[in-house]
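Archive maintenance. Older records in this collection stored only the sequence; we are now back-filling the structure field for every entry so that each record is complete. The fields below show one back-filled record exactly as it appears after the update. Entries are processed alphabetically, and DUF6310 domain-containing protein is next in the queue.

ARCHIVE ENTRY
Title: DUF6310 domain-containing protein
Organism field: Corallococcus soli
Length field: 302
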Amino acid sequence: MYARACIALLLILSACATSGPSPGEAVARSPRNANLQRAAALPWTDEGRCVVQEASHPWPEVVEQCFHALDQERLRFRDPTGRCAVASAGAAAMGIGFCVLAAPEIIVGAVIVVGVVVVGIAIKEALDAYELKRADPEDAVPVLETKPAPRESVAERRPKPQPAGQDWLPPMPPDARERERRPECKPIPVPHLGGDVLHNMCADRVPRNGFPGSDVLVNGKRFDALQLHARVLWEVKTDNFDTYTADLQRIVLEKQVRELQRERALALACGFEFRVGVRSAAHKFALGLLDETLEVVVMDWC
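Back-filled structure field:
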């Protein structure tokens, strides 16, 4: 109850301290986006999934619901005004840190983060989706959201352990989550192999690639790209297929189809979809003749 009283006070202060946006600023000052940007500067133990779910609520409520997910060992709180020392009395579950962080406008130096903050994957994807929506509403990727659960105070809420292996990815179906608990199914970015500049460029430019500049190790295989939101692993082929002789095309295709079928099986075993990128329609057509179940895309970005 005391936590709720603190939240109500902070919301009132927020309303008084914030002037209404002009019509031209309405989109730029989206409360959800503002909350995501503020949260991006903080360290989270759940890659920001709680914040993404709660970001549409006022910031003090976001803090209340997600305070448990902060990496509090990396945070230092200061209360230069002394207001939080009084407001937090009796709210031991949250303390001064909660009060300082939930304030309508955080005073410079009140929250100090130890070390470098890497933006949580879930927050980054939500911010990227927001920017895409502003740039092209018809081509935007929907932000992952879940139906709001019954709200409870931080004092009553216990941190729930996250299944191992989900550090890199957004929420997934239960069966995929079970598979990814296997250590070999956790995506790990690793340096590109070799010095094939064209191949690496085509892989890095896969739309919404979560790890440009790296391969992704999954289930013992280095894949060329991973679309985090869609959970799709990619293999990129940059052969000049159209210039090959008929005999060479046959040899290359037979070898590639065997490899791609094996790689697809490895991806599916860990709950990922699998896609192949090629540079020409002829190459796509020829692969489809040998295995029509392969999902092949002509890379117009390459």
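Update note: DSSP finds eleven helices and nine strands in the chain. Residues 46 and 161 are 9 Å apart (CA to CA).
Entry marked complete.
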